[in-house]
Amino acid sequence: IKLLFATGNENKVKEVRQLAGKNFEIFSLKDLGLDKFNVEENGTTFNENASIKAKFYSKHTDLPVVADDSGLVIDYLNGEPGIYSARYLGEALSFNDKCKIILEKMENVTNPRERSARFVCVACVSLNEKILFCEEGRVDGYISFEMKGEGGFGYDPIFFYPPLNMTFAEMPMNLKNKISHRYQAFYKLFNTLKNSPKV
Ligand code: ITT
């Protein structure tokens, strides 16, 4: 099954290609020359933003279009950065710096339980002019006390996952892909697509 994954984030593409396995051929926006088009993610929920991306790019291809909207929700920061995870603190700032600033904002929070956070991912697919959503993926953890690990992307170096006693950035991709919010969301999406007669 051929799909367009409507994302400008190459790290998401790598993760989702590994998750998809052999049944799916995933094209990125870049692969189809569609990365020159930009869409404003002006929704107020992860679901809205995912569907804005899928709908927009489905106008440019006949393939089913998959999109992911995701982010880090930090309880101590009242849910920030949440749906604004990509734009948080300004587009110009590197994720390395965004992570550092979050750690600074939380330096007085010494009780790990008050550092609770979760990654959330909503995946959807635009298929035959309809948008199909699967249940959102979410993984609970804590904001670490320091940045750790070289792998992953975005906020992975400060997202501590207690069951494995490491941050997401300390995990090889195949391990993160057994746990993550994105794995959970796409596992359901790919199963739905495999069982859909119209794809
Ligand atoms: P597209 O919209 O083009 O897909 P994006 O990176 O802007 O790419 P989002 O709008 O979904 O994606 O923003 C999500 C941000 O949340 C992303 O840029 C990361 O900083 C962060 N994020 C999401 N999933 C993550 C993960 O698995 N690990 C680390 N950070 C993640």
Automatic annotation (TrEMBL):
Homodimer. Keywords: Hydrolase, Magnesium, Metal-binding, Nucleotide metabolism, Nucleotide-binding. This is dITP/XTP pyrophosphatase. Its cofactor is Mg(2+). GO terms for cellular component: cytosol. One of its GO terms (molecular function) is XTP diphosphatase activity. InterPro entries: dITP/XTP_pyrophosphatase (IPR020922), ITPase-like_fam (IPR029001), RdgB/HAM1 (IPR002637). It comes from Thermotomaculum hydrothermale. Substrate binds at T7, G8, N9, E10, N11, K12, S70, F153, G154, Y155, D156, K176, H181, R182. The gene is rdgB.
